[in-house]
Every structure is written in C-alpha cells, then in structure tokens.
Specification:
Layout: E1 4-9, H1 16-32, E2 37-43, E3 49-50, E4 56-57, E5 61-62, E6 71-74, H2 85-94, E7 100-103, H3 107-113, E8 121-122, H4 129-135, E9 140-141, E10 147-150, E11 153-156, H5 161-173, H6 176-186, H7 201-204, H8 211-222, H9 230-237, H10 241-252, H11 256-274, H12 279-285, H13 291-302, H14 306-313
Parallel strand pairs: 1-2, 1-6, 2-5, 6-7, 7-11, 8-9
Antiparallel strand pairs: 3-4, 10-11
Helix pairs in contact: 1-5, 1-6, 5-6, 9-10
Length: 319
C-alpha cells in the first residue's frame, strides 16, 4: 500500500483540538502500521500560528511550497470568521487536485468559501449550520450528523467529531483492527456512526421560557418510560392539549412527540453504551415497550440496529 500524505492547514485562530485530535489518530495509525501515513502541517507563510486557546503551533512548511497531499484536512476555529483571502485562494486552487478533502467543525466554512462544497451535502458545528446554509446556498447543509461523506469530500461537526471521522477514514484506508487499536490507545470509542445526531435532545431543543413547559421537559428526560402522550404532558403543564402542543413547539423549536422520540433514543443509547442490560430491558426502561419498536427507531434515526450499535461501542459485551 502506498503511503498517504496528509496535510493539515494551520492559520491564526484555529481550534487546536480540530488539528490535534485527527492528527493523533493518523499519527497513531502510522505508529501501528509504519509506512501508511505521512502527516504534515503547513501555514500560509510557514510561520507559527496562535490557536484560539492561545497555544502556538509551529508548522512543518508553507502552504505555498507544500506538495499536493493525498488528504487535505482543513480545521475550524475563530479564524474562520474573517479568513485570510490568500488562504481561500489557495484552497480554491489546491482543493480540486487532492484525492480526499476533509474539514473539521467550521473548516467547512473555509472550503465552502473556496467553492469546494457547491452541489455537495455537508455538515459543520451545529451552531454554524444556519450560517453555512445562508452564505452558501449551493451547499446542501445537514445539521444532524456528526460527519458527512459526499464523494471525495468529508465534513465533520464540532471539535471531537473530527476524531470520529479520522477513525472512520483509518478503518477505510487500513482496517478495523488498526482503527480499534488507535481508538483504544486514545481511550475513545472506535467510532460513532456518521449519522448519529450531533447533540442531545436537551441541546437540540431550546429551553422553554415558561416554567411549566421547562418542568415538562425535565419530566420527559427523567421519565422516558412514563406516559408521555400530549394529553398527559398537557395536564402536567395545566394546559389544554392543543394549547400545550402549540406552546411547546413555539418555545422549544420541536413538537412534543419529536422531543420525546429524541429523549428515548438518547436514553437507550446511553444504556447500550454504559451498561450490560439486555435489549428487552433497555427497550422497556427507555419507553419503547418492545425490542422491535426500539429497533425500528434506531434504524430510522441511526441507520443501525441496537445490537449493532452496542457492538460498535461496547465490543466486549458482544464477544
């Protein structure tokens, strides 16, 4: 197998973990299987850059003299808000020539500005998805997944999702055993499915302004197996079902039913990841009632069945 060169783009205001997270994954794979990756970093002029957290990174070379890599990785950070026009021009010229283009977090904003996401499906940090869609209408922005693959272009969500994407690329380039060895060394999960939601139900929904609705949100989270029908929740909020459904959606940004679905799925995921409880018990305590109902919810939302989800996160439980 030919060695793949990976080039990480550095700039002032870059998010350090957007760089170091994926970099550690690929460097770990190289240590495990020598000759697979050559990891390089570069800034516009080859000089040091200061990250958004104040850490100084010293690149290996200048972007202007760096050879075309196999994989070009563009991180995000505060420096993407007012990017250097020279960096956008460099990306516009070099991006189409690389076999694989990867962005982490708001790095998607940079490659979109260079026209490299036009006509493609992409994601970024959930807080910037609206901006990406608004500023670049030719990009099909999906705010849900932790990463998206569209041809040779891969975009990932906020910060640590860059690690998930890097592990998925290592598994694709080499094999699962190498990716698993790297994940174990870094003490992270092998990989989360790319279509796993970026954030929890509580983060996805806005917090209601009115106290009775906030109390309902808390109740749902603490009692996923309870009676969570609109009628029951409306009674808890002391509102009519129609008034409750309308108010809940206005204040949280989603319907009560969708919020309940997200909370139950999140609860089941955590039990699959963190406990040895059986599938039937998890289905019951998460409010699904039956394993089949839980399986349908997992396949619809995550594209995988509960047993396969657990195998990815807790392989020791499925041996």
């Amino acid at each position: 197998m030919a060695q793949r060169t990976l080039l990480f783009v550095l700039f002032d205001g870059v998010q350090s973990l957007d760089v170091t997270g994926p970099l550690e994954v690929f460097a770990g794979a190289e240590k495990h299987t020598p000759g697979t990756y050559r990891v390089r970093t570069a800034s516009l002029d080859g000089g040091p850059v200061r990250t958004s957290s104040g850490l100084t990174l010293v690149p290996d070379e200048a972007l202007t003299t760096a050879p075309d890599p196999h994989t070009l990785l563009v991180p995000g950070g505060q420096g993407t808000r007012l990017p250097d026009p020279r960096l956008i021009a460099w990306l516009r010229a070099r991006g189409p020539r690389v076999p694989r283009l990867v962005s982490v977090c708001t790095g998607a904003i940079l490659i979109a500005a260079a026209g490299l996401l036009d006509g493609r499906r992409a994601t970024t940090h959930w807080a910037y998805c609206d901006k990406l869609a608004r500023d670049h209408p030719a990009v099909a922005v999906d705010p849900e997944p932790i990463y998206v693959r569209d041809g040779h272009v891969a975009t990932s969500a906020g910060v640590t999702s860059g690690i998930d994407l890097a592990l998925a690329l290592v598994e694709e380039d080499l094999d699962r055993d190498v990716a698993l060895a790297v994940a174990r060394h870094l003490v992270v999960f092998l990989r989360r499915p790319g279509n796993q939601a970026q954030f929890s139900a509580q983060l996805a929904a806005q917090t209601a302004q009115r106290a009775p609705l906030r109390e309902v949100q808390r109740w749902i989270t603490e009692h996923p197996a309870g009676d969570l029908t609109v009628e029951s929740l409306a009674a808890r909020a002391r509102l009519s079902p129609r008034h409750f459904a309308r108010a809940f959606r206005e204040e949280t940004g989603m319907t009560p039913g969708r919020y309940v679905d997200r909370v139950r799925l999140e609860h089941a995921r955590r039990l699959l990841e963190d406990t040895a409880d059986g599938i039937e018990e998890i289905a019951r305590t998460s409010g699904y009632g039956t394993p089949e109902a839980m399986r349908r919810a997992f396949v619809k939302t995550l594209g995988t069945a509960p047993a396969e989800y657990r195998r990815r996160f807790r392989p020791a439980l499925t041996r």
